[in-house]
Amino acid sequence: MNLCVFIIFQLLLLRLETTTSNQVGGGDDNVVMKKCSDKERRALLDFKARLQDPDETLSTWRSEEEEDCCKWRGVTCNNQTGRVIKLSIISGGLEGEVSNSLLNLSYLTHLDLFSNSFHGIIPTFIGSMTRLRHLHLGSNHLNGTIPRFICSMTKLRYLNLGNNDLKGTIPRCIGSLTELRHLDLSANSFYGIIPPEFGNLTNLQYLYLGVVGRCRVENLHWLSSLSHLQQLGMDGISLAKQNHWVDVISSLQSLSWLSLDGCELSQVMYPYSSSFLNSSSSSIEVLYLGNNSLTSSMYRWLFPLTTNKLQILDLSSNMLDGIPKYLGNLCSLESLSFANNSAVVNFPDFLNNLSSGCTSLTLQGLYVGHNRFIGTLSNETLTLKNLANLDMNSCNLGPHFPRWIQTLKNLSYLDIANNGISDTIPLGFWDMWPSKLTYLNLSSNNISGKAPDLSSNFGNNSIIDLSSNRFYGPITNVSSTLTSLHLSRNKFSGGISFLCQIDQGFLVVLDLSHNFLSGQLPDCLWDFKELKILNLEHNNLSGMLPTSVGSLIKLEVLYLYKNNLSGELPLSLKNFKRLSFLNLEANKFSGNVPVWIGENLSRLYVLNLRSNSFFGTIPLQLCQLANLQILDLSLNNLHGPIPSCLDNLTNMVQEGSLATHNDMNANSPVL
To answer: N or C end of the chain, less CB within 10 A?
Structure first.
């Protein structure tokens, strides 16, 4: 063959193999030139068939023969060959085990199943997917250990097994995956030594090893070999014997993000040379050092790591008693967390130190909750005018409302909960941040006054928590874009028709418990399709639950305890497939205990029907609630024997959880 023709032929083959493909359904308008093969279409359908898909994430995956799987959600094909090369189903709510039918996707290079509910061990067949470059199984419920076959997947550039239920030791052979650029094993329960063989992964740019278990480093010098490292997370890994960890970290000239939360750094000695202490070559932009029991003496070694590049500094949950003035000279600092140091801090001095240089111009987030601040702060004292986020939860700001907050015109996040404030809200407070606030927490104070107008200050997806105060009167106006509304333990009265002002696509959490609310449940309540938590307990609500209540298919918690609700439970409640907690105690519900509770609500942990007017026998179907921990059917009009199969509910907290005060036939066992 002519050499030129041969070269052209090889180039065409290379192009055919490497052509970038579409992820149809993801917004790419390019046309797929060839349909997927029938074999790969059937493989994907088999993968789907073995899963539960409550969110209908895979609704586009249809079985008709003319269906082109390259157009399905999450599927990417090579434009020229039609081969499936990428499967990416992120946060799809899929449940089950990963099917070995994926082996039939023989050209797959990218498998991303992040943030679903896959369970079981990491499937063995994945080790046979030799073309994989990208494997992301993070944020599922996978268990067992890291299998050895992972170490044979030498083409991997991206491996994420983080946030699962994996245990055991981390295999040393992972150090042989030298093509890796990204490795995430964080948020699992590993133990033992972090393998020094990780020093062989010289191409790594991102390394996340933070664990829930107990791991340690015996010698950190291997880290110096990772010269390309940009982000490093080692939360919860003991560095108690690594006296030179600052030297090692400082040698990583590309490192911009470092998290050493809970690494026992307080036990480390710091024998530095003067030349090191005078160094300011650190490239770190984000630094997390929380939960290390550090004292203020740490500032002498913190200085080399804090240059004008630093943007985020987290010193929370330590034993610090203040901040040094030089931190005020960090001209790029955008966020400072000093929370949970239990310090007694002079507030004006604290702010003066922060404002001594240029930090006052850049700081946007200040998180100092759970410290005791003393000293008087005037409106003129506050110089951090650009703050967007302020967390001063549990900081002893009371008893008067801190009016200086009203000088912070750019706030989007404000938390001043649990500050002993016994006052009213100052005039104009609710109009300070039109459409800006996304988080407001004034809970656990003693603030009084009429129900505020909550309609103007809040932006999209906002959260409001005014619980445990002394607000009173009817609630009339609320933001239309709330995702969470917490108004419990106040003295609010009247109906709850104000909920109809909220956009139905936003509300996820609603807690109006422990008030004086009355009337019937408005029809609009059942239109909140995203609602996960509904707590209306301890009010005086009345009427029946309508059939439309079953539209809340994402509901996980339903508390209606101690109201005046009546009637039979509607059959549509069986749609609550995700419900874990159901408390209907102390109402006037009647009828038989529905059999569909046992047949359909398989995720229930708590079922409390106590003190109603249910009658009949206890349905055997309740024995199907394998996850049930608390069952209370007492103080109803039930009769007949207790089903013996209830003894099989081994997750029950204790026998005392089983009720014993029903009106049942004489000489019959009671529940």
So the answer is: N
